[in-house]
Design goal:
The protein has 108 residues and is of the alpha+beta class. 65% of the residues lie in helices and 13% in strands. It has a domain of 75 residues: Orthogonal Bundle (Arc Repressor Mutant, subunit A). It has five helices and three strands. Strands 1-3-2 form a three-stranded antiparallel beta sheet. A hairpin with a 2-residue loop joins strand 2 and strand 3. The radius of gyration is 19 Å and the shape is elongated. The termini are far apart.
Length: 108
């Protein structure tokens, strides 16, 4: 994966509407109209968000009659997983220390 592709992926997931679209598509394929109905923003706005996700390679689209059906294409999210993996040790260490602290308070 190139740096430009990584940047597109990170840019795409930076927006909460696009992250929600990914979450919805993780549950299964869906027509654009059905996805748009789940938002309080306009259909053209949802369509633009889908376009960004499509260009980043995070979703795929197929035609079914007049509908455009979207599906999750999660392989590009691997870059996000790899990047965040380096920070997991900080989260896990913090949680471990919190657990130890709470255990010590329960012993007294």
């Amino acid at each position: 994966m190139t740096a430009q592709t990584d940047n597109q992926v990170f840019h795409a997931i930076a927006d909460p509407h696009r992250r929600r679209l990914l979450d919805l598509l993780a549950a299964g394929d869906s027509p654009a109209q059905d996805l748009a109905a789940r938002f309080e923003i306009s259909f053209p706005a949802v369509s633009q968000h889908l376009k960004v996700l499509l260009e980043a390679g995070l979703v795929a689209r197929r035609a079914h009659g007049r509908q455009r059906i979207y599906r999750l294409a999660p392989s590009k999210l691997k870059a996000v997983d790899e990047w965040t993996a380096g920070y997991r040790r900080f989260w896990e260490g913090s949680l471990k220390r919190l657990g130890e602290y709470l255990d010590s308070k329960n012993e007294t």
